[in-house]
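Run folding on both entries below.
>entry_1
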Amino acid sequence: MGQPTHRTVAVNGIDLHFAEQGEGEPVVLCHGFPGLWFSWRHQLAALSAAGYRVIAPDMRGYGRTSAPAQVSEYDRPHTVGDLVGLLDALGIERAVFAGHDFGAHLTWDLPAWAPDRVSALMQLSVPRAPRLPVQPSVGFKYLASKHFAHVHYFQEPGVADRELGENTRAFLAKIFHALSGANRYLDCWEFPSEGNGYLDVLPEPPALPWNWLDEGEFDYYVTEFERTGFTGGLNWYRAEDAVWAQNESLHAKPVEVPVTFIAGAKDPVLEMMGSDPFATMGLLVPGLVSTHVIPDAGHFVQMEKPAEVNSAMLEFLGGLTTT
């Protein structure tokens, strides 16, 4: 089987790097924090082998894509503009978009922001949720008054940037383990915010290799983030107030394009969202075709259980061509 090719295109005021593999109907895969195009390596291979043109960018702020310094450049017009610009640069009118973590947060918004460019969504790990009643930073501060909350810790420029950047290998090992099917992330909630950094509250991981991540794959992440630092990824969190305001009239707009949702049964993010994170998704997403909750997988479901995720994606994509 072939390997993805890599290109960089100038779009929307930045240089956007992406990996691409296959020919056919386009599928764009959008990662979250702390991800890279490489987070979709298993999907690039499987979907391209099935006859799709698969495109996995390093999102704004990550990897070999530009990382603007200003938080304002991570708001919704900029992040949507990156994806629209990528389609334009590749001569693509419409695509299926897949999102994971912050990538899902963005791609949930795409049908409202760029309705003519989205044919369907494949969303991983982050369900569509109702609009927050207060600014995100206000909610983050409240959470931090109860226990350590990374979303609040990440808000102050320079603080998390320095801690994570000086401990790249340790941080990545801890966060990948804690959010995986090991389901240790909520250990963080046993610690107060005051006096703690992120590495202080994350549990110690076992030695690599794990059953879903080997030393070579892990080293790719370490090398990239040692080179770039984490500020670009952290700026997505710092732009949340702006995104919330920009979505005021759009967030409740129903997502009517066909959607499949895929999550790990042991994803701590689902626990953080409450007892039934799927309760309102049907109302917000009338286009929801299928939901897949994959046993023994956590937040990084596309890497932890690639065969199951690939199967769910291909079943969904196949259904699009027959309807």
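>entry_2
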Amino acid sequence: MFQGGQKKQPTTVTKASKNPQPAATPSPSPPPPSPKFSEVFAFSGLAPERINGRLAMVGFVAALAVELSKGQDVFAQISNGSGVPLFIGTSVLLSVASLVPLLKGVSVKSKSDGIMTSEAELINGWLAMLGLVALAFTEYVTGRTLV
């Protein structure tokens, strides 16, 4: 298909004119624009609910794990301060990992499949938030660890 060092264009012949014409090549559609940082972090944006839910899920599991391993309630874990650097590091890591796809324009629903849907993640995040509050409230009222 090469003539004289150049690629030969495909041609089509119409009935009205017997002159060959180059075939039209479809142009690729441009990718959708990436959302702005302010749109992602808006009150109704994509990031706040997802990031808070993910952090709550990790926090709830971590709080229960520390209670089981060390026997400290949530308030003792917070006042102790030994887990603060780990908490901050985990928060930053999860926030950045959540933001990168959102800022690139990848929709959460496009990655949903089977039982791992975006709605299930939101519900799990809400339940983890409620679980943390209920855990702290129960330990405050009873004055001892839950587990």
